[in-house]
Amino acid sequence: MAFPQPKPADGKIIIYPPGVKEITDKISNDELVKRLKMVVKTFMDMDQDSEDEKQQYLPLALHLASEFFLRNPNKDVRLLVACCLADIFRIYAPEAPYTSHDKLKDIFMFITRQLKGLEDTKSPQFNRYFYLLENLAWVKSYNICFELEDCNEILIQLFRTLFSVINNSHNQKVQMHMLDLMSSIIMEGDGVTQDLLDSILINLIPAHKNVNKQAYDLAKTLLKRTAQTIEPCIASFFNQVLVLGKSSVSDLSEHVFDLIMELFAIDPHLLLSVMPQLEFKLKSNDGEERLAVVRLLAKLFGARDSELATQNRPLWQCFLGRFNDIHVPVRLECVKFASHCLMNHPDLAKDLTDYLKVRSHDPEEAIRHDVIVTIITAGKKDLSLVNDQLLGFVRERTLDKRWRVRKEAMMGLAQLYKKYCLHAEAGKEAAQKVNWIKDKLLHIYYQNSIDDKLLVEKIFAQYLVPHNLETEERMKCLYYLYASLDPNAVKALNEMWKCQNMLRSHVRELLDLHKQPASEANNNAMFAKLMAIAKNLPDPGKAQDFMKKFNQVLGDDERLRTQLELLISPACSCKQAEVCVREITRKLANPKQPTNPFLEMVKFLLERIAPVHIDSEAISSLVKLMNKSIEGTADDEEEGVSPDSAIRAGLELLKVLSFTHPTSFHSSETYESLLQCLKMEDDKVAEAAIQIFRNTGHKIETDLLQIRSTLIPILHQKSKRGTPRQAKQAVHCIHAIFTNKEVQLAQIFEPLSKSLNADTPEQLVTPLVSLGHIAMLAPDQFASPMKSVVANFIVKDLLMNDRFPGGKNGKLWSPNEEVSPEVLAKVQAIKLLVRWLLGMKNNQSKSANSTLRLLSAMLVSEGDLTEQKKISKSDMSRLRLAAGCAILKLAQEPCYHEIITPEQFQLCALVINDECYQVRQIFALKLHKALGKLMLPLEYMAVFALCAKDPVKERRAHARQCLLKNISIRREYIKQNPMAHEKLLSLLPEYVVPYTVHLLAHDPDFTKTQDIEQLRDIKECLWFMLEVLMAKNENNSHAFIRKMVENIKQTKDAQAPDDGKMNEKLYIVCDVALTVITSKSTTYNLDSPKDPVLPAKFFTPPDKDSCNNKCYLSDETRTLLLTGKPKPASVLGAVNKPLSAAGRRPQTRTPGLETGSNISGNSAPNSPATNRGREQNSEVPETEVSENEEHPVILLTVVPTKTDKKDEPVRNKEMSSEQSLPPQTSTERGKKRTAPAAGSENIQQIPEEKKSEETAAPVPPKARRGRPPKAVSESNSAKNADTNKPSGRGRKRVAANQESPAEPETTTIKVPKQQETNVKRAPAPRQMDLQRIQVLDSDGYSVMELESTPESSAEELDLFKSCESSQNEIDNPELAEGSFLKVRRKPMPKGRRQRL
User: Fold this and answer.
1) β partners of residue 1344
2) pLDDT tens digit sequence for 341-353
3) Is 356 helix (H, G, I), strand (E, B) or coil?
4) Residues 1270-1291, mean pLDDT to the nearest whole number
C-alpha cells in the first residue's frame, strides 16, 4: 500500500530539533523511529512558555499530523507520533495548532487507537503508552473535541477503548488516569449522550461484568465520581424506558432492572429520580413486569447497607403491598426477599410481620413453605432477628394441611431448639425464647397422620435428645428435658415410647411365626401381623406391599433374621442397635438402584424399633443423675429445674421406661437407688419407685436376695400405712414379683381386716384400698374372708351409717382437702366392693345383685343412703359419682352386665345429667374411656345422647367428640377384624339407636307426651346421636337406621310391656326419630342393607298378627319440632375451637376446683379425637373460673304487690342479676321455667326458721335437669309450671341456664313466683379448652385427661395425671357379692318407674 509522502506544512520550512535529520519516506523504519524518538524528547522537554520554540516547531507539529504518520503501518512509529501529538496539544494549549475539524477528528481517532496498546503491560513500549495516557488525562486534551460536530463518535470510541483495555495487570495509576480522562469529558462537556452513557453502563450488566471485572470497577468508580453530572442523563434514560416504554432508545433497555440494581449499589443518588418510576411499575397490569420490579426492589431494599426503605417510605409501602399480589410468583418473590431483609435490616421486621402473617395462611403451599424458610433462616443466623410473633407463624404451620409445609415448620423449629437450647449458642435469654419448641414438637404426636408421628420420633432422636451423644450426655439431656416438659408433652413422649415398644412386639411376634412350621393358619397370622406393622409406617398401602417383600427376604435370609432378632431383643445396647441397622440396610441395598423405595420403607421400620436411646448403661446413668439430685450435687438449678421437680420427673421417667425396657433395670445399683427413693417423704416419688419395682423386679427374688429382704418390709409398710396409691402399687408389686405372694398378701390382709374401725375414718382409706386390690388379685384365697368384711363392716358399719355430720358449705363440689374422711372412706368402700366382684367374676352367691341394688339405692337417694340429712351436698356428689362409676365398672364384666336391669342402667345413665358439673365431667370421661377400649357394651354409648341436655356448652361439645371417637374406633375395628362381623349387634355403631330410643322414652323429664318443649328436648337428644351416626351414609346406613326405628314401633317395651302409657312414649320417641331422619337424609327411603336385630332385653319380639302404622305426632307438632327450635349448631360446631366465656371477667379458682384446662400462648394443642383442619390455630386468653365456685349467699327480701289474696307471692318481680334467686327445691319434670341466676346450680341454702311454712306453702320450682330452652318467655314458663308434682328421685337435676356458667352480669331478669327469700350467687364462667379436658377422678385424687392434641400447657394441678398404663387402671371398683346385702328401700315418687 502506498502511503502519502511527508510534505512541508503550508509551504513553510520544517525545522527539526538539533540532531534530528529530515524525516522522509526514504528512510528505513528503524531510522524513522530513531529520529521520532528525538522529536518526542524535544516536545517532552518543551513547556507552554517557550514561545520562540512554539513558533519554530509549528511546521513540524503540522507535519506530524500528516497522513504519512497517522496512517503509518509501523506501530512504533504511530506510538511515537501519538506521543508527539499529545505533547503538541499540551504545549499549544489552550489553542490547538490544528484548525481543521476533520484533521482534529482524524488526530483524536488516531490517538484513541494508540491507547489500545495499554492492554499489554509486559510490552517494551508500555511506558510510552502510559505516558500518552497520562499526558492526555493531565492536559484534558479530549475537551477540544467538544467543538467538533463528530465529538460523540470520538468520545464513544475513547470510552470503549479504555473499558476494553483495562485489566487486572494495570496498577492504580493507570486506572486513575483513565478515570481522570473520562470524568473530565463527562463533567466538562455539554451533556452525556445516550450512546456515550451506554458505553459506560454496558459494563454493569451481568454478561460484561463477569467477563471483565476491572472494566466493571472502572465504570463503577467513574459513575461515583460523576454522579451529580450524570444523574439527569440516567434519569432521562430510565424515564424513556420505564415510563414511556421506548425500548428502542438504547440497546440496554432490556437490562434496565439489572442496571438499576447496579447503579443503586454504586450510589443511590444516581437513582433519585428513578425510584418514583419504579413505584409506577409496581402497579403495572402485567404480572411478569411486576415480578421483575419486585425482584429488583427486593435486592435494593434487602441490600446490607441499603437505607432505601427509610429514605423512600412511599416506595417501601408500595412494595409491601405486593405481598398481597394476585400473581403467585410475585408473592413468592416477596416472601423470599423477607429473609434477606430480616437479616440485613432487623428494624424492618415490624413492617414485615403483618404481611408474613397473611402469607403464612396463603392458599399456595409453596408460599406458606417459603414463609417458614424465611423465618427459620433468619432465626438460625441470629435469633434476635425474629420476634415471637414470627416464630408463632412457624408454630401455626406445624398443623398445616400440607405435609411439606408441616415438615419444614417442624424441622425448622427443631433446628432452632438444638442450636439455642441444647448448644446454648446465644445464652440463656435466647434459650428461654425458644424453650416452648420442645413441647410444641411433642404435641404434634397427637396428630392422626403417621407421617407426623414418624417425623416427631426422628426429631426427638436427632434434635431434642441426639442419639449420637455419649451415654452420660444423652441421658442428662433426656433427664432435664423430661423434667421441663409440660404434662401434655410428657404424655406424648410416653405415647411415643409405647408405640415404638408395641411395634417391636409386632416384629418380635413376626419373627416367632417364622420359627414355626409353615401352615395356612401360620400364613394367616403372619399376614395379620404384617398388616399391623404396615399401619405404623407411612403410606400404609405401599407399606403393605413392601412389608410382604421384606417378610419374604426374612424367610430366605437366616442371617438377616438373626440381625433383626438382636435389634429387638431386650438386651440390645444402643451401639449394637446402630450396627444392626447398618448391617440390615447394607444387605437390602441395591447399588444399581440409587433410589430404592423398598429400602426407605425398611429404614422407617428400623428407625422406629431400634433402641437408640435406652439400654442398661443409659438406665444406670439416669439413676446416677437422680441420685445427684437427691444429694443436691446436680446442676438442677442451672438447667432451670428445681431439685424436687427433677427427682419427681426422674422417677416418672424411669417408671415409663420400666414398661418399655424392663430388663435394663436389672442391676443391684439401680435397685439400691430405688430403695432410697422409697424412703423419701415425697409420696409421688415413693409411689413411682414401687411401680418400677413392680414392672421390673421379676428376677429380684432369685438374683438379688438382699434387695428382696429390704424391699418386703417396705412394701408391707406402704400397703398398710402409705398413701392409697402407694398401697395399691405395693399390693400389685408383691403379687407380681414374689412366688410366695399368697403368704405375703395374707400377712397384709389379716391385720388390716381386723383393724377396720368406722369410728376412725381417716385411717380407713389405705386399708380399704389394699384389701380391695388383694381381693381382686387373689379371689380364691380371700373370697370367703372378704364376704365377712363386706357384710359386717363395709355395708353395715360404713355405708349404712353416717357417724359424722358433713359441712354445710352449700357447694356441690369441694376440693379434696375439704372432703370429710368418712366420705373418702365410703368412696373407697364402694371401690372395694367392685374390686371384690371383679376378682370373683361370677355371681353364684348373688352378691352382685345385692351390690347393684345398693349402688342404685345410693343414686336414688342422691348420695345420702341413710337419708339422715347429715351429709353435705358436696359429699353426696362424691358418692353419686362413685356409685355411677362403680356400675360402669361392673358392666365391663360380661357376667355382671347380664344382671344389670334396664332400670339400673337408666339410673346409671342419668349420672351424666347430674346437677354437679364435676360429676358429669368425670363420669363422661370414664364412660368414654371404657367405650374407647371396647370394654363397655354398646348400649352405654346411648348415654351420651343425654348430654344434649347439658347446660354447659363445653360439656356438650366434649360429649360429641367422645361419640365421634368411639364410633370411629368401632368402625375401624370392624374393618380390621373379619371375625367382628359375627358380633355386629355389639359393635356396629348404628345399633346404638334402639338403646337411645329406649333410654329417652324412660327419661324422667319426658312426662307429657304431647308437650312440645319436652318433645323438642327429645329431638335434640336424638339428633345429638344421629348427627354423628349419619355424617357418612356408609352402606346405606340411613335406611338401616330408619328400618330399626320402624321395627321398634312393632314391638313393646320389655321393661313394661303391659304399660300402655310407657309404650306410647316409646312410639312417640320413634316418631320423633323418624321425623329427624326424614328431614336430614335424602336416602332414608332406600332398602335397608340388612334386617336389623333389636335387643331382647329392651324390646319384646314383634307381634306378627298386628302392624303399628299409627303416627303419634301431628303434622303441626312435626313442623314445630323441625322449625320452632333450631338445633344447637353453635355447640356442635364449636368442637374444633377453644371456647371462652366472652365478656365476663375471669375468676380465680381454688386448686381443688380446677376442672378445665387453659390455653397457653406458647402452645395451643388440638384434640386428637378428631382430625381438625391443620391451619386452624385459634388462641384465646386464659380464663380460670369454675362452675362450682363458692359465692356468698345474699338474703333478698321481695316486697309483694297489692293483690286480692294476702299471701299471694310477688309475680314477675324484676331484679338485677347481681342479686341471686331463691333456691328451687322441686319441679315437675320437663317443666319450662325462668332461668335462675347463673351460679345457683351448686349452691343451695334452706332457711332454717321456716320449715313449717315450707310444708304448707306450694313447693317452689326446682331447676330442671337438662339444658335450658333456647328462648322461653316468662309467660310460657309460668304457663308450663306445675309445682304440685314432686321431684322424682334417683338423679340430681342440672341447674337451668348454664349455657356458659358465669359470674353475675348486669342484666335484668324475671323472677317467677317464689315463697322463699334466700338467694344464690351466679357461678363463674368456665373457660374450657375442648382440645384437652382435665377432671377430678371419682375419688377426688386424680386429674383425668381426655386424649387430646395439646397445643396448650395445663396448669399444675395438685392432682395426679391419668396417663397410667393399663396395669395401673385396675383400680376400678370391685364389688362384693352376697345376698346378705340389705338395702333399705324408699318409696318411689309418682311418675317414675323404678324397680330395685
Assistant:
1) 1335
2) 888 888 888 888 8
3) helix
4) 38
Cell of 1128: 344447637
424-437 pLDDT, tens digit per residue, is 887 888 888 999 99
Return all residues near 924 (Cβ < 8 A) that are at least 6 apart.
912, 944, 947, 955, 958, 959, 962
Predicted structure pTM score: 0.69
Alpha-helical regions (H) of 446-573: 450-459, 471-484, 487-514, 520-534, 540-556, 558-568
Residue 77 to residues 29, 32, 136, 880, Cα–Cα distance (Å): 8, 7, 18, 121
Q: What is the pLDDT of residues 1317-1328, one digit of tens each?
A: 333 333 333 333
Q: Phi, psi at residue 638, to the nearest 5°?
A: -65, -30
Grid cell listed for 352: 414485615
Question: Is-contact 404 364, C-beta < 8 A?
Answer: no
- Give the number of residues written for the chain: 1396
- Residue 1200 has what pLDDT? 38
If DSSP codes are grouped into helix, strand and coil, which group holds residue 1213?
A: strand
Answer yes or no: is pLDDT of 137 > 80.
yes
For position 1089, what pLDDT does the model report?
A: 64
- Taking the C-alpha atoms of residue 200 and residue 95, their distance in angstroms, rounded to an integer, is 29
Grid cell of 983 as nine digits: 358380633
Rounded to whole angstroms, the Cα distance separating 574 from 604 reads 17
Kindly report which listed range (249-263, 457-471, 1332-1346, 1350-1364) carries the lowest average pLDDT score.
Answer: 1350-1364
Phi and psi at residue 402, to the nearest 5°: -100, 135
1326 near 1301, Cβ under 8 Å?
Answer: yes
Mean pLDDT of 1223-1233: 36
Close Cβ partners of 1006 (under 8 Å, ≥ 6 residues apart): 1000, 1014, 1017, 1018, 1065, 1069, 1229, 1230
**How many percent of the chain have pLDDT more than 70?**
79
Q: Output phi, psi for 400, to 5 deg.
A: -65, 155
Tens-place pLDDT, residues 359-375: 999 999 999 999 999 99
CA atoms within 13 A on the CB side of 985: 8
How far does the chain reach from its first CA to its final CA, in angstroms?
Answer: 136
Q: Output the pLDDT for position 1253.
A: 38
Cis peptide, bond prior to residue 94, ω within 30 of zero: yes
Query: What DSSP string describes 22-62?
Result: ---TTS-HHHHHHHHHHHHHHHHH--TT-HHHHHHTHHHHH
Q: How many helices and strands in the chain, by DSSP H and E?
A: 59, 4
Helix, strand, or coil (residue 437): helix
Q: How far is CA 890 from CA 882, 902, 1292, 1342, in A?
A: 12, 14, 22, 21
The pLDDT tens digits of the residues spanning 75-99 come to: 788 888 888 888 887 887 777 777 7
Give the C-alpha distances (Å, rounded to integers) separating 120 from 170, 771, 1267.
Answer: 9, 106, 98
Q: What is the pLDDT of residues 101-113, one digit of tens each?
A: 888 888 888 888 8
Contact 90, 54 (CB under 8 A): no
State the burial class of residue 1352 (Cβ atoms within 10 Å of its Cβ: 0-12, 13-18, 19+): buried
DSSP 60-98: HHHHHTSHHHHT-S-HHHHHHHHHHHHHHHHHSTTS-S-
C-alpha cell at 153: 463518535
Beta bridge partner(s), residue 1336 = 1343
Asked if 606 contacts 615 with a C-beta cutoff of 8 angstroms, the reply is no
Cell numbers found for residue 358? 397473611
272 near 236, Cβ under 8 Å? no
Strands (E), 1098-1139: none
Angle, helices 75-91 vs 29-45, to 10°: value is 20
CB of 102 closer than 8 Å to CB of 126? no
